[in-house]
Amino acid sequence: MKSRSTGLRGSEVCKRHKASPAIPSDLVIEILTRLPAKSLMRFKSVSNVWSSLICSQYFTNRYQTVSSPAPRLYMGLSFFDDSHLKCMLISVSPSSDSDITISSFDTHQDLTNRAMRGYITHVFRGLVCIVDEASAQIYNTTTRQLVVLPKIEESSIIDGDHKLKNIKYHIGHDPVHGRYKVVCTVATTSGKVGESTTYMSEQWVLLLGGDRSSRWRKIPCQSSHFPLTQGLTINGRMYYLAWIRELDHVLVSLDTSSEEISMLQAPEDNFCPIRVTLIECCEKVAILHYFYLEIEGTMKLWVLEDAEKNQWSCKSLVFQSSQVDLSNKIKLGVVGTTRNGEVIFAPLDTAYFYVILYDLPKNHMRKVEIKETPNRHLTQFSETAGFDDVENLMYL
User: Fold this and answer.
1) 8 Å CB contact between 79 and 378
2) CA distances from 122 to 81, 241, 280 (A)
3) Is residue 66 within a helix (H) or strand (E), and if so which, with residue range?
4) DSSP reduced 3-state for 251
5) Which residue has the higher pLDDT, 378 or 319?
6) pTM of the predicted model, to two decimals?
7) What SS3 state is found at 75?
8) Do you know which InterPro entries this protein is assigned to (predicted)?
């Protein structure tokens, strides 16, 4: 992967990218950070100096602290066109938080034309992770850049003859150095201890935006484990739920700066690995178990109140019959939370065009329909990838 990021600080950027004498360089940067991302993408073609400035790590980080774009919901559509299966990524945005329908959409044709391979695992700060078995791609929704990540050549699990392989990719952000990283956890079964299955795993890290020599680096972990959920990044730490033995749950925590891994014992309860996810609740990591949502209209929420003391709070959520009817007893999956803390539920394995937003503190649920979706009549399958409100100028 080739990078045009300079990693310079503000003063160094100003000195290197001098503007007209009439306008100080630092003022130019302040003006540019307040422009829409689409305008900045056009301004890159003004000159090499402007392109280098806009793609610099300093400007990218500065822009994210200033800009406040409208939140967008990302969906992947699969449809047949002239007997060929095609994929499309769209993003939709309501005009206000109070809207009950979404009608404004943006089609990411760049990704469509390049034949998106695999499925979308998540969206994080304007970056979309697309996984196809052991390979992965990263797509920047702002710059429309799509890169294929290098293969992990030295993994003994990926290249080994194992019947069961679990490969998960997570995008994280290092707030200390202002960099983005992709973490890959590879796991498989290793044997039995009594009646419990044991696992072996590897953890690999790749720096996004590195030069052509960037490679996956293996990082140590105190205990092998089997990941169950997608990663969740909060305040520079990435979390995911895993098994160290079958039905023995732990919360894995990775410091994205130091790349040190630690583990916390999860609450002692039986989770269905298919219907459990991690969400952010009041800036804390939480476990949401929703296996009985469609059947009984109940969920359980555990919130990590104190990581050092491993203290969890537990809350049972009971829905009213009207709330259960709102989902029409269709299987739902959690695809993230909004900036207001609402949990986003989306239909699974269907071509329904709506999401359900659930306010945890208020126990309030509302249905949001997506109107005027492109290729709606042709769509065979749709997947809601996630909710995001970041425009990322980072050059991959």
Assistant:
1) yes
2) 26, 16, 15
3) helix 57-66
4) strand
5) 319
6) 0.84
7) strand
8) F-box-assoc_dom_typ3, F-box-assoc_interact_dom, F-box-like_dom_sf, F-box_dom
